[in-house]
Amino acid sequence: MQKGYRTRALRPMNTNPSKKGDIRRGSPNRKPKVDVHFERRNGGTSSPKSQKISTLRTTRLETRDTNERQQSGTILSWLIDSQNIPESATIYYIGPTSLTSIKKGTLEQNGILCACCKNIFTIRDFQMHSGGNVCDNPYDAIGVYGILDNNCVTPLSQYMQLALLNQNEPKHHTVKHITKGFDDDDDVYDDVCILCADGGNLICCEQCSSTFHVVPDEPYYCAYCACSLCGMPITKRDSSCLTCSLCGKQYHVKCSNESLKIDINHFPRAFCDKRCRKVHEKLENKIGVKRELEGGLSWTLLHRFDQEYGSYEVQASKKLECYSKLAVAFRILTACFELIKDRHTRIDMIRNVGMWSHYQRINFRGFFTGILEKGDEIIAVASIRVHGTNLAEIPFIATAEPHRNKGMCGKLLHEIESDLQDFGVGTIVIPSSSETVPVWKEKYGFNLLKEDIKQEIMKLNTLMFHDCLRMQKTISGYLNTLLS
Prior knowledge:
Elements: E1 10-12, H1 66-69, H2 75-81, E2 90-93, E3 104-108, E4 111-114, E5 120-121, H3 123-129, H4 138-141, E6 142-145, E7 153-155, H5 156-164, E8 203-205, E9 211-212, E10 241-243, E11 250-252, H6 274-286, E12 291-292, E13 297-302, H7 316-336, E14 368-374, E15 377-387, E16 391-399, H8 408-423, E17 427-432, H9 437-444, E18 447-448, H10 451-457, E19 469-474, H11 478-483
Helix pairs in contact: 5-7
């Protein structure tokens, strides 16, 4: 907060300090709220004292069905599991070909079994094996016979569109404007701290629903209710402010040297400074672009092509493939982690990465999904959000079960770090359970937060979980990037 602004911006809640997480506002006769902790998959709730839940990275359910754990992370497997196409369905190549005969195959979880050579091919390899052009979209050029129409071959792309109509798929993970508390319709304030996700004696921001345990000595509006450049508060009726398309913070137009540029081929975007603009442009250029690595691996950065990223000219086939891979990535994450629900709003936090809400603490807008692939199979997934050039967070990272203990997590982290270095981002922050701190420290070079990063996080909307610790890693070559 800039010095000179002294108006009181935060007011304390009426709290009952004898009960942690027991928050009362208004009338003292109002029924108090009670902490509701993460719900396990087998139902019920748990207390942090009796059942401490390792919410991230290593805790998995050993009782989960074996077939669910061993599902292949491919679009074909996703279509089979969503019951849009049966396994062993007849496949034909229907695109332009240099061959005189049409290739036929059988659909399997891990690929297409060719009828002529009895080899299993990936989607793109079967297209090339059939004499197709590598530039053509294979999901339009390969089809399934006799499912939607008994006498026709229907392209895979149509089945992908049908699968995405399911309300559980990422295409529908959009806007959820959560405005009320879980058990108190009159209370618009969040009942846990925006920084640590825990309850107790909290202080409310005068402008929004955010709450804090502690604040600096000088009263201030929370970071998302004040201009990110001058620190003065921004009211809802202030028409002279914009929201940065990258970091999500508000700013006065007069405070920024960056002007709002209109491009008829892109959605309107605004940036608080040139650093956010450069990072955004680099991110946008890499969305949906598969980059080849050694050992037959590749990695891709995925994001919804909506008002933040993409243009009006993005091909429908590219969007469809992106959303389908997001659906597969979501399956991998949900298979690797226990169900993580926000204690106050009860939303599924993994499912809703990418949404926005009334509560800044669970505002997940701006997340990207990084995927590591081998052939058509997604083998590792990470959720990433970039907060300007200061910091990036990775709250979720997971490896599909058949590929664990093979260094895949490290490979994905390395590629993410390489991109962040190119963007000029200085630090990666992750949440970790206390049990996994030594692993992240010794194997991946993370350490517990330093004081300067703690102060920086107080200005940012980062995802945090109850009973977790934050760790940081300075990106290699960051200082050289600053000097270049």
